[in-house]
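Subject — a protein and its fold
Fields — amino acid sequence, C-alpha cells
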Amino acid sequence: MSPLTRARRLAAGEAPVYVATRLYDPSGRYLGARLECGCLRGLRAGLEGLGLEGRDPLTFLPFRDSNSALQGVPTEEFSRAIYDLDRDHIERGFALLAPLGDLQADSGIAFEVGYAAGVGTPAVLLWLNFFVLRYDGTEETLLAPPLLSRLAARSENLGAFDLSLRFDGREDYLRRVAAALDEAEAAVAELCRELVLRPHHPPPLPAVAPAPGRVHLEFGGGQFETQRCWAARLQAELERAGFAVSVSRRYEGAGPLLERAAADLNAAAASELVVTLADGPDVDGETAALQGYARGLGRKVLLYSSGRRRIYTGPEYDHRHNLMLLYSADRTVRRLDEVVPAVRALLG
C-alpha cells in the first residue's frame, strides 16, 4: 500500500492510530489520554500538509474505546471480545504508539508491539524513563530492551524528567512534573505529524516459512539462571520426543544484543509453535512481545504459567495475566511436565 493510500485511509477514519494503554494502572490511562491529545494534533497537522481533512476516528484508545463499543456483551464473553476488538484495530491501524517505562515493560503493551510488527503495522516506542539500559559483557547502552527495539519502527525517549534537579518545595515539584507531561504531549504531536508526512515501516519480516514440527522456546532470552535451567530441561525433553527445538539466547554468548535479538525473532518465525514463559510478577516484556510477534505471523503459541495469583474484577475479568497474553495463546499449561504432551497435541 502506498504512503498516500495509507494516509487517505487514516483521514477517512478507516485506520486510526492505536494508542496503547496500561490496563491496570489509572496513571497509565491518564498518560494514554494525554498522549492521544498530542497524537490527534499531530495527525491533523500532517493530513493538512497533504491536503487531506481528517475524519474521526483518527485514534483508538483501548479501555475507553473498547469498553464503549462492547456495551451489552455478555459478561463471560466480555474480555474475549475486548481482545478481538483491540487486535482488529492493531491490524488495520495506521501505526501503534506504545508508551513504555520502568524496568518491567507492560506485558500487554509489549504484546501489542510484537503483534503490530507481525501483521505489518509500524510500532513506535515512547519511552518515559530518565535512564537508559546497559548490559554486562557487551557494555552496550540501549534505550529499550533489545528485542523490543528490533520490533519497533522507531523509538523515542520522552523521559526528560531529570532527577539531578533541585526542587523548590511541593509547588515547584508539581509544576515541573506537569511541564514534563506537557513536553511529552508536544513531542508526540510532532512525531505523529512526521509519521503522516514521512511514513515509517515495520522491520522486514523474515522470508522463511515455519518448519513443520519445529518448536521455539522463549523463556526470557537466558537473562536469568532459572530461565536457562528451565529452557535446557524442556529442550532436552522435547528433543527426546522427536521435535526440532530452538531457544532464545539473546543474553547468552557474544555479539551485539540487537543482532542476537534478531536471531531470536528469526528462530521464532521459523518455528511452527512457540512456547513462552509467563512466570513472574508480570510476563517479561520481551517475552510478551515475542509472543505477540509469533501470533501476528500466525504461529501457534503455548503459554507456560505456573503462578497461583488471579487478577479478579468479577466474572468479566478473572485471569492470571493480561488478556492479550492469555487469549493469544492456543493453550496454557501450569506445569513443566505438561509442556511436551501439550506440544504433541497442538502439532498433531
In short: The radius of gyration is 21 Å. The chain is about 45% helix and 15% strand. The chain has a mean pLDDT of 92.
